[in-house]
């Protein structure tokens, strides 16, 4: 029996639907609205880009509109938002934007195909080396132009694979000349090139994808469950996959019911797929943990972070470091600890395009650093991923067994 993986697009980006078509005059009105309102609404729109460069980009886009397709205007606006620099300022992608039938992920500097639809199963486990005639260095350079440019490299590593499967973005950036079909070149494990013409498909949440790895470790299971946990008998620990802040009080109570039932003395909080929410709600979990003296001990409490740990989850990872005796493990979160955030949204008048912007500046660490570094840095390799292994959990289990 074939195994399929459902990839939740909510982990990739927000999606909204604009009007089917805009006239050039309507787009120009939207561009002027964006230009004026972003400066008024953002806490500091020029913390990274200069006012002169911002205005020049907007004026050039205004002039170029008559020669652009709708999706090209949207991608140009994405580039403008990206130059503002913070991860909470962005242009939402559209529900009618399509996807290429593969999923990508960085392992070090290499982009591997981690899932594909059945028709493109030959790409599974290969490395992307070209789109059209462009090599990975140029691909990375162009895709970086639509990603917030004053964030850290972990944010880029999180977002770039998601954007590279959107044909509207790939085409607007000049990586493909034909929207309907583009040549992707991959390298397999034997260093043999595989060239495939990828045809875009609708962004269907129920689309079937075959995973490259035959088994999925805990952190890649139940991807649609925002707050799920299980007991690990071998180390007397409860593992918690904490992705969203909804129903936090009820979920915390259920979590501690299991801890008490099993008399667990260890807790593992996995934030690798937590894209944010209300960090004050996350602090309720931390407060409850601090009340449990058995768990809030070094060697009994572990927090896992990764490149998709963003916004409130990044804040809560720092809270764990400051307020508990947790050991923090994994990759750094994909956001600068001191940056502009707490987004609000505006809608452009004609296209109804949704644009997010930051309303506050937060400083969560005394020192301005690109990323909050975990105590134990563990990066997953392609080999480990492909074998269905999780080196972070392997480290935790080994540590606990040595300290039983």
Descriptive account of the structure:
There is one protein chain. The protein is of the alpha/beta class. Helix 1 (24-41) packs antiparallel against helix 2 (51-64), helix 2 runs antiparallel to helix 3 and helix 8 (279-290) runs parallel beside helix 9 (312-323). Helix 9 links the parallel strand 14 and strand 15 (327-330). The relative contact order is 0.15. It has a domain at 218-339 and 365-402: 2-enoyl-CoA Hydratase, Chain A, domain 1 (Alpha-Beta Complex), CATH 3.90.226. Residues 1-14 have low confidence and may be disordered. The protein contains eleven helices and 18 strands.
List keywords for this structure.
single chain, about 400 residues, alpha/beta, 2-enoyl-CoA Hydratase, Chain A, domain 1, six-stranded mixed β-sheet, four-stranded antiparallel β-sheet, 18 strands, about 30% helix, about 20% strand, disordered N terminus
Write the layout of secondary structure elements.
Layout: E1 15-16, H1 24-41, H2 51-64, H3 70-84, E2 90-91, E3 93-94, E4 102-107, E5 110-116, E6 127-131, E7 134-135, H4 136-143, H5 153-163, H6 167-172, E8 182-187, E9 193-198, E10 210-211, E11 227-232, E12 237-242, H7 248-262, E13 266-270, H8 279-290, E14 301-305, H9 312-323, E15 327-330, E16 338-347, E17 354-363, E18 376-377, H10 382-386, H11 391-402
Parallel strand pairs: 1-3, 12-13, 13-14, 14-15, 15-18
Antiparallel strand pairs: 2-17, 4-5, 5-10, 6-7, 6-8, 8-9, 11-12, 16-17
Helix pairs in contact: 1-2, 2-3, 8-9
């Amino acid at each position: 029996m074939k195994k399929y993986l459902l990839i939740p697009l909510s982990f990739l980006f927000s999606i909204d639907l604009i009007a089917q078509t805009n006239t050039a005059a309507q787009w120009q009105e939207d561009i002027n609205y964006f230009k004026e309102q972003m400066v008024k609404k953002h806490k500091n729109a020029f913390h990274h880009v200069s006012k002169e460069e911002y205005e020049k980009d907007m004026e050039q886009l205004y002039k170029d509109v008559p020669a652009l397709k709708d999706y090209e205007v949207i991608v140009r606006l994405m580039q403008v938002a990206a130059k503002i620099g913070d991860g909470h300022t962005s242009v939402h992608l559209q529900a009618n934007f399509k996807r290429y039938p593969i999923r990508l992920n960085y392992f070090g500097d290499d982009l591997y195909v981690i899932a594909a639809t059945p028709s493109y199963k030959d790409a599974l486990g290969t490395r992307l080396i070209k789109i059209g005639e462009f090599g990975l260095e140029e691909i990375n350079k162009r895709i970086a132009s639509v990603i917030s440019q004053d964030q850290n490299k972990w944010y880029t590593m999180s977002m770039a694979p998601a954007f590279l499967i959107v044909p509207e973005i790939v085409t607007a950036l000049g990586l493909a000349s034909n929207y309907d079909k583009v040549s992707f070149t991959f390298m397999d494990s034997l260093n043999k090139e595989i060239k495939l013409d990828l045809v875009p498909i609708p962004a269907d949440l129920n689309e079937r994808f075959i995973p490259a790895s035959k088994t999925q470790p805990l952190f890649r299971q139940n991807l649609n469950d925002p707050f799920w946990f299980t007991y690990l008998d071998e180390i007397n620990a409860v593992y918690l996959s904490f992705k969203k802040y909804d129903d936090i009080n009820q979920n915390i109570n259920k979590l501690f019911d299991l801890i008490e039932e099993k008399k667990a003395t260890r807790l593992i909080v996995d934030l690798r797929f937590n894209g944010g929410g209300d960090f004050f709600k996350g602090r309720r979990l931390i407060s409850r943990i601090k009340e449990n003296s058995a768990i809030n001990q070094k060697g009994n409490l572990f927090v896992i972070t990764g490149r998709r740990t963003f916004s409130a989850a990044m804040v809560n990872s720092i809270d764990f470091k400051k307020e508990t005796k947790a050991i923090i493990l994994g990759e750094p979160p994909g956001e600068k600890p001191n940056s502009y955030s707490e987004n609000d949204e505006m809608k452009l008048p004609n296209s109804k395009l949704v644009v997010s912007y930051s309303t506050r500046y937060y400083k969560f660490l005394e020192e301005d650093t690109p990323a909050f570094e975990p105590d134990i840095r563990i990066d997953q390799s392609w080999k480990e991923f492909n074998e269905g292994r999780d080196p972070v959990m392997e480290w935790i289990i080994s540590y606990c067994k040595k300290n039983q």
